[in-house]
Amino acid sequence: MPVRPKRKKPTSRKGIDVLHDPLLNRGLGFSLKERSKLGLRGLLPPRVQTQTEQLNRRLAYLRSLSSDLEKYIDLNALHDRNEALFFRMIIDHPDEIMPLIYTPTVGLACQKFGSIFQRPRGLFISSSDKGRIAGALRNWPRRDVGIIVVTDGERILGLGDLGANGMGIPVGKLALYTACAGITPERCLPVMLDVGTDNEDLLNDPFYIGLRQKRLRGKAYDVLIEEFFREAQKVFPGALIQFEDFGNTNAFRLLRHYRDRICTFNDDIQGTAAVALAGIYSALRITGGKLPTQRILCLGAGEAATGICDLVASAMMEEGLTEAEAQHCCWLFDSHGLVVSSRRDLAEHKLPYAHDYEEMTDFNAAIRSLKPTAIIGVAAARGRFSRQVLKTMASLNEHPIVFALSNPTSVAECSAEQAYRHTAGRAVFAGGSPFNPVSIDGRSLVPRQGNNAYIFPGVGLGILASGAKRVTDEMFLAAARALSLQVKQEDLDQGSIYPPLSNIREVSAHIATAVAEVAFASRLASKRKPRNLLAHVKSQMYDPHY
Q: At what angle do helices 94-101 and 68-81 cross, to 10 degrees?
């Protein structure tokens, strides 16, 4: 997508300091004139390369590496050296690079984080900083931060408690904010709140980089979180703060506590919900069904599952159902079985979907009984969408909707090939990780990843473009609709319910416009609405060319 290049601010830094700043460094891309002006003569080889030549050289080396983890490390090093070239690589080759810097590779990178750690990025704030968090935040060299992604590392992807190793997630998320939506990299701040870990393997790991203590819980935890949010608003006023990979115990209550006080959202709850709803909207263009007649069964009952049910129910209510009717279209199946009203072990977030129904502990039996039109896997339960489950769905639906959204790939409920093979190619499939095209009965089916990267970057861009003071559910409904509208008929014809990643910046611009429209209509915007909102949004997008 063509975007208007941003004028680089002049820098007073000279010589080796320029080469050591990833925001300024261009390596061999500096012209002879720039080398003279910036005091770089003699500090670089004499050859001047275009950015395209640099990109081709880096790609050739990257492709020579034997493992995805090695490629992650190499890309991370490039990120630390030359941000413009790093983001140019992602934008020009999204299908190849995004799985390396985020899911599924980032999961393994977080597991190995202590062993591969080279250079800190972002802020590490620990429970030992209590009472001094403001000072830690002020150590960050920039004040124009627009987006903060913060995690405490308790529920990293489908891998569980990885403690401080979870810093790879905020770093990766913010890289996607820049690559997918053009958020200027210097406005992005990843934060790790290290409150300890209950992962015994990490506590005994000599290379672990975090606090060697059990997780902080209860009042002490809440006091630390409150201090962080209070001081972050003072040091970085107006910044959007995104919750990322908090455990279920804290995720729902923290979102409820802060969402009406500050500009914040939880991507695991709200972003996942929006990308799933967008997928359902697209799938209905294939199945021919209407949203209020769908029955959704989620395998899982945590942040993602209840977030999906909440947003789907809201969308159904906008199409005429009552709240009770909409909620009764959404069902949860957790580790103890079907979530029903007779169970007495239910967490508060499950209660709206605990229906009056018989208890069931067999997932396939629950499908036969409930007859869902869609099953959505968000429980990191590898292989639970078995051959039998998929065949049952195919027997109930001409085009069963099957979303295996757990990631990384190692915890996916099924693969694309399994979904297609066991439904005679009739499934409408999306995965949480990328899967290769599948040929079946002479037809090539191209599954696309139901990745939150389709949603959260555009939401963030819309928040910044409008100066929104809060993030609302209406914004995520608008984002889901905007995403589904970017899916073309030729995508649907090949089984793709999301647009190609090559269009992600255009997609994000349209999502940002839809989100900003909600902000302006709801009087939550602090900026003046421009005459051409889409053009204004695009003009805000960072261009990594030089």
A: 90
